[in-house]
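# nightly structure sweep
# worker-07 picked up a monomer target from the shared queue
# config: single-sequence mode, recycle default, output format = structure tokens
# input follows
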Amino acid sequence: MDYDCHQAKRLLYARRSVLREESLFCSCFSFSSDAGFTYEEINQVLAELVDTDGPLGVITSLLFLGADVNFALRPGRSAGIWGRITQQRQAGLRSDVLLRATTRCQPETIRAIAALADNQNMEVVFRQAILRKDHVALQALLSNSGQARPSPASLDAALGKAIELIGGPNESLGQDIIERCLAAGSSGPETDLLIADGLDKTVQSRSNNVPSTIILARQEGESTIELVEVVRARQINLLLQLLKFPQSTTNLTAAVSEAITVKDTQLRYEIVRLLIGHGATESCTAGTLVYLVQEMVSEQPLAPSGDDTDKRLLQFLLDQGMADLDYNNGEALQLAVKAGRFDIVQEIVSRQPSSDSLGFALPWAMQLADRRSKRHMVSLLLRHHINEEAVGRALVDAVRGGNDNGPKNLIRILLTRASVNYNNGEVFLYAIRQSRLDILQVLLDQGTSYKTLFTAAREALIASTSQRRVVFGMLLHLLEVDHLNESLKHLVLEENADLCLISIVLQAGAQATFDNGVCIKNAAYRLDRNALRILTEHCGYNESIFAQALVVVLNRGREWISFEHVEVLQLLLRCGASAQIGVVSRAMIEVIHHLAGQSELAELADTLLEILFSAGADPSYEAGSAILIAKERSDALILSKLL
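# output follows
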């Protein structure tokens, strides 16, 4: 600095010597009180140095010594001898040193001179630089350290010229000018257009930079900035600039969705990582996770080297991205399970998806063709808290599928989570229908509910005779009275009653008289003496039920009146029907009505009447109608019994 100042003074002294030799009026110059040189002297030397693009240090020293870059002749001074004689005051003569510097000097020199310029000087010079499209000069003028600034309109015009550089070799220069113009308060049509469309044009031009003031201006005017086009253009630097500012969830979601489609897996990883690092998490990354898993399980991945990178991306989405595992019913997990990708499934389930999402994935595991893979996948899902209904349905499907789809070891795995009582024990239907007694025993060992036992018992009863005895034998120790009673009812109502099983059920505790003796009445109606005999052995005496059963028999008309059905009558009377004299007497009348006057049936009539009279039948019942019938038909044998 001392050297430059010395050089500046040397030039000033040299200039003064020349002036003294050339002018007799050198004494008219007013001297600077600080340096001993007038600003006119300094300005002249400065102008000479500017014209020759002199050393920056010397020019800076001249500015320090008192050069006036705005006026060649300051206001209030008279110019020349005539001016001094007439005392005419001048408005001052403007200096063009800054203008000359913009066309001749380096940017550093321009900045040094511009730092001392006033607004008027700056405006004129700035406009001239715009007209010349001198972008270097514009940048230098905008980057000076002084207070003077061009008008908003001039800044707007300069911004328009700088936009032309975007996408070209001097793009960085244009970016800097745009940045400075906006920061200095540019206002006008070019500025408005830039704020509205500048970001899009920057993206379209494949530029990697955009002035942050544009982004800030866009942010203030709009709620969001679309990142999708930036991601699509693979402009990482521009993306970084945009992400410095807050982004909406919608914008981030769209950007991540676009990023995951990038073919280059490494670039894709970097873009997604950036977006997640700036807030694209949870719901923003849910769809991205699905897309990535779908790509990873596809037969033809997008890139041969994608596996390792995609695995890292998967882990990043799950951890830092906190992707919603339950998005669309856990679609990502479903895709991985369906494809049999244990590595992906393990990554997802270890992050604890919901029980419902695990439940939606389980049916896909059950459909895997390879048995070993199926068992492994099902086991992997069941290690976590899974929807009980889904596991119950899977158990039913496994048993229903037969040995091919439901081997015992798979069923045992399912039973670690599934309940055999799902849907009232639906699984027992298929175990019994398919005669899978080993599976049935496994199911029974799990503990059965009241309703489940009803399901199992009913299904067992409609099996073949030999099969149901075996199955019923397996169930018998679990059945309660209600189950036994319903089973007894089913057996008795069958066309060909299984007497052996009826006896077993009664011995196990079934009540022959339950439901107002429906089993007894049904056996009596069908005149099934064998079934009735077994029932009466376990029911004891019941006046009401057996009297009703006898009425049921009588309502069949003549069918019961035969030697074949004598035992039925005896059983009913012995177990309680005899107590109802009216019913017994009605039976007597029925016998006489159908047999009186038929000598060939006299033995049958005698046998039946003896039984009925022993039970207390009254000949005078219904005004002695039995006697009248015997008289009308002239049946002396019957009449003698009645009288």
